[in-house]
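Quick illustration for those who missed Monday's session on complexes.
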Amino acid sequence: MDFQGPSDLHLHSDHSDGTDAPAEVMRAAHRHGLRTAALTDHDTTSGWAEAAEAATSLGMTFLPGMEMSAKYKWRSVHVLAYLFDPDDRRLRAMIDRVRSSRLERARTMAERIGRDYDLTWDDILAHTSDGATVGRPHIADALVAKGHVRDRSDAFATILSPRSDYYVALFAPDPVTAVGLVADAGGVPIIAHPAGRAGVLPDDVLFAMLDAGLAGFELGHRENVEPGIGRLRALVSERDLIVTGSSDYHGRGKPNIPGENTTGDEMVRRIIGAGTGSAPVYPSA
Ligand code: AMP
Ligand code: FE
Ligand code: FE
Ligand code: ZN
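Prediction with zinc ion bound:
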């Protein structure tokens, strides 16, 4: 079996901070003309089965994925992971730990916000699907519903900003550890939006990540900016790395549209060739 493009390998469902169920995400991808799509919820694989079923019934190829939380000093680093073994013991233990820390952290932030605004933990739960990876976007949705902010972006710029007194950091592994765990689980690790406004990670960290098995960079992403993009392009040609492009669709949670960036067939082929922990799911027809 072979996949067909166009391919979008970075989409979120309500199993993390997207607003659509996994099947709806795949329907949205299909509507926008995609033929291959990955589900990459934050720190969870729980949406894979539903997404795979929906994608293949629409004639699309499904690539299992995840966006793993990591942290370098104070800044958050997102590691996209493809085709890893979802039952790998060490990787599972790590994402379980990150998810429970996220829950704890959201409760603490809710308590702090609740001192100044009308907002309870139940309000946040009302905007979080059962078992979902909880994040600031869910708190944002509750704040919007209560009329305290206009939208998620407004919430992130004010009450939920890292500079705000309500902010609590989450536990996450360092990026080298995250990459190593994904690689050891047979997966293909790629840094998500690696050239955002915070800048590219320092060279020594990038080199350590490459030594740990980092496969490439998501250079096609609306948050990337120069000069970081240029720096990473140079590294990509020097080391013959994988380059992806994707939408980072979050349903109504962000303006990003499925297919606004795509990954070329040759790169998808390399990802499929490198992943050994799980397999793409091809349409049956
Ligand atoms: P957290 O991981 O809980 O700290 O929250 C970060 C998540 O919030 C990321 O996965 C982003 O998708 C989302 N996010 C960050 N900034 C914004 C924004 N301005 N609007 C909507 N979502 C955002
Ligand atoms: Fe997100
Ligand atoms: Fe991300
Ligand atoms: Zn994402």
